[in-house]
Amino acid sequence: MSTQGRFITLEGVDGAGKSTHLGFVADWLRQQGREVVVTREPGGTPLGETLRELLLHREMDADTELLLMFAARRQHLAELILPALARGAWVVSDRFTDASYAYQCGGRGIAAERIAALEAWVQRGFAPDLTLLFDVPPEVAEARRSAARTADRFEREADSFFNRVRNAYLDRARAEPARIHVLDARQSIEALRTEIGQLLQGLA
Ligand code: TMP
Asked: Which of 30, 32, 53, 155 could form a disulfide with 151 if both were Cys (CB 3.0 to 4.6 A apart)?
């Protein structure tokens, strides 16, 4: 068994159901005897959680939004993710940089080169070992969003915004098939867990 920590991220449009599976991933890894750190973006540190409140609830310019996402990410890496991986823990994050490409580039229309420049600055080549992309057709995600709690600033966006976000995620998966695994999130929870378990097994 490898003693090196790994970084796993979960992605998908709001309403795809990814957060339901976060606990399963963590429990599966713990059963293998791993130390597991579960976290999220934006957030994951006290400063990051303060930035999350602003990002989810305050109106702002699209570039400001992008910069705050990466400011929170830098703090997340420096304070939590990199130290955890260095001591051999596995880190499971509810969203990471693929979300910036999907939402700020796909959704808001910011040029991908700008995001790539921030990614290089903040991550210095660091990237997830495995990304689970929970994919559902737009109407399924929309139904799940409207059944959920009070909408935040992103969840209030139009269906067309989420279609662009979904397509940007799928484009990334096509460009990086070895890292990003697309899961059909319309499947039953049991079927998804079987598929996720197999992917985790492959990483162990
Ligand atoms: P969550 O609802 O999955 O916790 O994510 C919060 C929101 O933040 C979600 O609507 C997606 C958005 N987001 C971005 O727009 N860009 C990013 O880089 C990240 C990490 C999240």
From this structure: 155
